[in-house]
Amino acid sequence: MRVLIAGADGYIGWSLAQHLARRGHTVGGIDALLRRGWVAEVGSVSAIPIAPLPERLAAFEEHFGDPMPFHELDLRNHEALGAALRAFEPEVVVHLAECPSAPYSMVDFQHADFVQTNNVSGTLSLLFAMRDHCPEAHLIKLGTMGEYGTPNVDIPEGFFEIEYRGRRDTMPFPRQAGSWYHWSKVFDSQNVAFACRLWGLRATDVMQGVVYGALTEEDSRLNTRLDFDEVFGTALNRFCCQAVIGRPLTPYGQGGQSRGFLSLADSLQCLTLAAENPPEHGEYRVFNQLRDVLSVRDLVRLVRDAGAGLGLDVQLKPVDNPRLEAEHHYYRPDADKLRRLGFTPSLPIEEELPVMIHRLLPYRDRISAHADRLLPTVSWRDGRAPHWETP
Fold first, then answer.
1. What residues does each domain of the chain span?
2. Are 7 and 98 spatial neighbours (Cβ–Cβ below 8 Å)?
3. For this structure, is 185 an active site residue?
4. Is 144 considered catalytic here?
């Protein structure tokens, strides 16, 4: 297949490009390289050094035999996006090109406005461009389990049956997002579903859990990034980096918050299954993409055990929760559709974390130089902008 990845320079995007190329697919890329700038803005770096884009593309061609057609552009540049779609003629478009940070969206009005404009307008631009230039292509849109919130009932995969005043229907499951970022993803889902009904596009909306994991390659130019700062680093990646540098783990609040998790390797497998098993024309389908449901306390225990197995003394120092979220709640999402397509989870998390920490150990000094970026500065309650200074 011809697969175009929007967000090909990112954590998942760069790894997915290589994974698909290894499976024999032709891969193209789009990226505005904004993630590099956002992380620099908050005064941090990727724990694993990443090569400049020209070096990445050169390494990709050397290892996979063909160059990756790449367009450095913002999805909101509608004319340039249309030209890129016409040039590549994709059969699948994987949309990962959004700002993926709840804390970044909660800094102040400017950041909230940027995240929503970037994400919602970019997705809308892509939908119109696909209608005009590749209407047969399959859109895989990366959503988030955070769209659902933490309802006190089981979470279905997108839709549920409801009976109200004696009548029954199948309807979208209610969304209860917890940040301006997560609301942007809710708006995306509604727009993608409407485009499928309106124009007959076909799309898979992937409600992905929290992704963790470090992938390093023999050729370092092929390494993907791993962020650990409080804004772009997810909880488990942050905890592993704290363990590596001897800093105490800093769970937020009492640690009862539960979410769905999966490794980066499992995310690649799931996205590939979605690409290789497309929906029908006009179909909008939703996959809940996760492997384990874990609480923050579970994460702390797992990282402590993994660190101890590598001779690390991992301590604990809880901090006040900067977010507005229930710390004790019911959380039971369905996640059956990808398994029916053949998703077979890779290493259990108890085995994955020691591998991840071992891969991060060579970058201990790099993480230590930015250790203060591991602590929360963005508060959901007061909305005051933090003062970030680049070391």
1. 2-232+262-290+334-341
2. yes
3. yes
4. yes
Number of H helices, E strands in the chain: 14, 12
Alpha helices in the chain (DSSP H): 11-22, 34-41, 53-64, 78-88, 102-105, 109-116, 122-133, 180-199, 235-244, 264-276, 296-309, 337-341, 349-360, 364-368
Catalytic residue among 11, 26, 123, 144: 144
Which fold does the domain 2-232+262-290+334-341 belong to in CATH? Rossmann fold (3.40.50)
Q: Sheet with 292-295: list strands edge to edge.
A: 210-212, 258-263, 292-295
Given 11, 148, 181, 331, the catalytic residue: 181
3-state DSSP assignment of residue 162:
strand
Q: How far apart are CA 344 and CA 384, in angstroms?
A: 44
Integer CA distances (angstroms), 283 to 37, 140, 201, 278, in order: 36, 12, 7, 10
pLDDT < 70 regions, the chain: 383-385, 387, 389-391
Per-residue pLDDT tens digits for 197-233 = 999 999 999 999 999 999 999 999 999 999 999 999 9
Of 300, 232, 219, 210, the closest CA to residue 47 belongs to: 232
Determine the Cα–Cα distance for residues 133 and 36; give it in Å rounded to an integer. Answer: 29
Which residue in the list 123, 150, 185, 377 is annotated as catalytic?
185
**Residue type at 319 in one-letter notation:** V
